[in-house]
Write a structure and sequence with these properties.
Elements (H helix, E strand, L loop, with lengths): L2 H19 L11 H15 L15 H17 L3 H13 L4 H17 L31 E3 L5 E3 L5 H20 L2 H10 L14 H21 L4 H6 L5 H11 L4 H27 L6 E6 L2 H12 L6 E5 L5 H9 L3 E4 L4 E2 L2 E2 L5 H7 L4 E7 L9 H14 L2 E5 L8 E2 L5 E2 L10 E5 L12 E6 L2 H14 L1 E2 L2 H17 L3 H13 L4 H9 L8 H8 L1 E2 L2 H12 L1 H24 L5 E3 L15 E3 L2 H10 L14
Helix pairs in contact: 1-4, 1-5, 2-3, 2-4, 4-5, 5-6, 8-17, 8-21, 11-21, 12-13, 12-16, 13-20
């Protein structure tokens, strides 16, 4: 097709698509689901830059999404990825709808054909007297409009209508024939669709597969089975003691001892250490950086590990910790204040009158005082705040004043991946310049284990031993039942978030009984309830993780290559949307801008707005679960 003809076709397609989007005639019956799906498939093929195979198929719990994806694929099979043919099929389907929009589309199509001039059309320019169907053969895709002439070989030549009136009459007769066959089913379809709740797009899904949730359920069941049946105090041991001699009972006890919670816990901790060190070793060999000696401490959460680290360091009361940037959750502030320490915030740098995402090294150097004992570097939203050069500058400042560097990577874990050719693609495993890097695997984090955290200590082997000793002596073990309750909550959230209709139904049900939907989601996904102040926070975090949590955490670390691939796809999508947003005319919306071009969007994609309440209400009115004030981050 020539360039001029293609431009005319695209112009006709865009004008017809605009008529369809703006259609609101109350006199016409709504189009059937089959027609809407056909239009969706043709439109996606005509406008999308990626094929349907590049978009994941929606889950079983989203039937509407699956039907749209199937229609998209059917359009690709029918048109053989020919966008021009797909545009024509879209226009033909609109003309065949028998509505006012269809008649307007017929007029636009006739105008397009007349501009092409009186010529023998090929297969791609067939007049739209019959709406295209997915199962039609190629021989049935064209028919005569004003009559057919036969040549010597018996082949028929399609003629363009001689006048506008002839063209409109043929269209009207075809539309009437198709409208009668589809109108019989519309009444029952409208009644069925009216019974469905309004779909609600959830704010996100937990980053865990259903098979991993099933594995966690099995680990909890194993702990309960040992406690009530296999242990020395279990029911099975008591029953067998009446019939079997003592030496056989001892042999059974030795066999069952491998399932003892402490042995399972020690095994999982050892495996977690081995897996993390292996990832660190591969990362260091790829970067060519000499890796410092590391030790990994496993805890219930990042908050627990920070409490252990501060307890082992025993900083003098009234000491200061510089926080870069000055954004964190209230629980971290409570823990630091519990140890009689004070946070001093260092603001983000400003370049050209605009705030940038990075570290103001000079402002930090000037803020260091005699009371400063540590620098706490936070990566909010999973966006890296400093690159390697900036971290080396911070290391020089820390060495000059005998300071520790605490790196809060709670939202920055991305795993590590090795390609088929052996090329290692790096995720972020913490900076070599930091003394301790803290990683979280809480319910809403990347590669979640529904709890747990890692403290990666460098050049601080004595501190790691002290942290483990304090954890064993001062911290109580986490009960399996409390972890299982969290597991049930997260399983429910994950299953419900698979379907927009399910979320909409739950919202309607909660509204009817006076429960706020956003409050329930927050209640089900939060790991700790921090509304009770410092003492309540300390009481909740001073626990050792149970064996089931550690087993799931070890399993998630095994899947580090899958984590990196998904995080990389998410990062590319966020970068593409950021470019689209930058070209838009919405001045009240903006995204993060980095000083050094470091890795961004490793966890979530933050969009800043000057009108948060208005933006939230607009998104909610469009069917998105986007309430205000749900984040725990505070300046």
């Amino acid at each position: 097709m020539e360039v001029e003809q293609r431009q005319r076709l695209e112009n006709c397609f865009e004008r017809v698509a605009a008529r369809v989007r703006n259609a609101s005639s109350p006199t016409d019956d709504p189009p059937s689901d089959t027609l809407r799906l056909n239009l969706y498939g043709y439109f996606k093929l005509s406008t999308s830059s990626v094929p349907s195979s590049g978009v994941p198929r929606p889950s079983f719990f989203d039937p509407v999404g699956r039907a749209k994806h199937a229609a998209w694929k059917a359009a690709e099979d029918e048109c053989q990825f020919d966008r021009a043919l797909s545009m024509e099929r879209y226009i033909q389907a609109v003309i065949g709808s028998g509505t006012d929009v269809g008649r307007e589309a017929g007029a636009l199509w006739g105008e397009y054909l007349r501009r092409l001039g009186e010529q023998e059309p090929d297969e791609s320019h067939t007049p739209p007297t019959h709406a295209a169907k997915a199962g039609d053969d190629d021989d049935d895709k064209s028919s005569a409009v004003a009559g057919e002439d036969s040549d010597e070989t018996g082949e028929s030549l399609t003629r363009i209508p001689a006048s506008r009136k002839t063209f409109d009459r043929m269209l009207a007769s075809e539309q009437l024939e198709q409208g009668q066959s589809a109108s019989r089913h519309r009444g029952s379809q409208r009644k069925l669709l009216s019974l469905l709740p309004r779909p609600l797009v959830p704010r996100g899904q937990l980053d865990i597969a259903l098979r991993d949730l099933l594995y966690a359920h099995m680990q909890c069941a194993l702990s309960v089975t040992y406690e009530f049946f296999l242990s020395d105090r279990g029911m099975l041991h008591r029953i067998l003691s009446f019939f079997l001699p003592s030496f056989i009972l001892q042999m059974i006890g030795v066999f069952c001892a491998r399932y003892h919670p402490e042995r399972r816990r020690a095994w999982s901790v050892r495996k977690i250490n081995e897996r993390w060190r292996e990832m660190e070793r591969r990362s260091s060999s790829r970067e060519g950086v000499k890796s410092a000696e590391k030790d990994v401490v496993v805890g219930l959460s990042v908050r627990s590990l920070l409490d252990l680290y501060l307890s082992s360091k025993s900083y003098p009361a009234g000491s200061e910790i510089l926080l870069v940037p000055p954004v964190t959750i209230p629980a971290i502030v409570n823990i630091i204040e519990y140890h009689d320490l004070r946070l001093v915030g260092i603001d983000l740098p400003r370049i050209g009158g605009e705030t940038r995402w990075g570290v103001d090294v000079e402002a930090l150097r000037q803020a260091v005082s005699d009371k400063t004992v540590a620098l706490m570097l936070v990566h909010p939203f999973g966006c890296r705040i400093a690159d390697l050069g900036t971290m080396r500058d911070l290391r020089k400042i820390a060495n000059g004043h005998s300071l520790d560097i605490i790196e809060d990577c709670a939202q920055s874990y991305t795993g590590i991946c090795t390609s088929k050719k052996g090329h290692i693609q790096l995720g972020y495993l913490g900076s070599e310049e930091a003394d301790v890097s803290l990683f979280s695997f809480g319910p809403i984090k990347t590669s979640t284990a529904l709890g747990g955290g890692l403290a990666v200590l460098r050049r601080r082997k004595g501190v790691a031993k002290s942290m483990r000793r304090m954890q064993e002596s001062l911290y109580q073990p986490q009960r399996t039942t409390s972890y299982y309750v969290r597991l049930l909550k997260c399983t429910f959230v994950q299953l419900a978030s698979q379907s927009t209709y399910c979320c909409g139904f739950i919202k309607i049900l909660l509204d009817s009984v006076g429960i706020e939907y956003s409050w329930l989601v927050m209640k089900l996904t939060r790991g700790f309830d921090c509304r009770g102040g410092q003492q309540e926070v300390i009481r909740q975090i001073r626990r050792r993780p149970c064996p089931a949590l550690l087993a799931l955490l070890n399993r998630r670390l095994q899947q580090s290559h899958l984590v990196y691939e998904e995080a990389d796809k998410r990062r590319r999508r966020c970068e593409s949307f950021s470019k689209v947003l930058a070209r838009s005319e919405m001045s009240n919306l903006s995204t993060l801008k980095s000083v050094d071009g470091g890795d961004m969007y490793n966890w979530i994609f933050p969009v800043f707005t000057s009108r948060p309440v208005h933006t939230s209400r607009s998104l909610i009115s469009m069917g998105f679960d986007a309430p205000c004030g749900m984040t725990q981050l505070r300046p």
